[in-house]
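[Automated response] Your request has been received and processed.

Submitted sequence:
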Amino acid sequence: MKSYTLDDLLYLMNRLRDPQTGCPWDIKQDFASIVPHTLEEAYEVADTIERKDWPHLQDELGDLLFQVIFYAQLGKEQNSFDFESVIDGLVTKLIRRHPHVFPDGELTAERVGGELTDAEIKANWEAIKRQERADKPVAKMRVLDDVPRTLPAITRAEKLTRRASQVGFDWGAALPVLDKIEEEIAELREAIAEGNLDEVRDEFGDLLFAQVNLARHLGINPDTALRGCNQKFERRFNYIEDQVDAGKGDWHAYSLDELDAWWDEAKLKGL
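Generated structure:
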């Protein structure tokens, strides 16, 4: 049985986009229309890993790779870039950002020198990225300029606070951030009491932002933590549903206290 290669995938993509004989759906797509699919595929990869569904991870990674291939084809059609230039730029950048592995800037260089700690590697990485931003041939960039606005809100909030911390605008520990969260809760309570929806929305955003900042200080990925919480809620809610189905079969036949008691049972069972 034939085993297809990367070259075959690039050829397939070219065929799909052929104006005369390609796929009508693929032909209609552009950079913007593909973005929602890219985000969906990335989340499906993350979900598969979190569920440890290793048999399906290969398929999901293939779907995600196809997104890159699609963008590269669009770039090639516009004479902007192609898949080869994407790879060349990526390898060049990674060599530059790993001087502890490629000390002379060559891909085949043997590693020399002492071992670096994770903190030292991370600090070097960020320093190199700052220099890269400074070297870009554009007008003076603000500190937060290249944090993409299209990122999911939680991810962008984490990146904004991390970037600000690199220039010293940050609390030195987690506890002051926790104090800030309590302050934001008080302000949210006040806005709710006043009944001003715009103020409620604004204060609720401040509260979420402060919580994301706390997650960063605690070394927790907030998106991962929230997805884990979603899964936990689903498991426990499913347990409640099982009890309802095994009993009267009607949710409205049970009080909230009764439903909540089953929730507590689910917790005790480790769900």
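Summary generated for your ticket: DSSP finds eleven helices and no strands in the chain. Residues 243 and 262 are 8 Å apart (CA to CA).
If you did not submit this request, please reply to this message.
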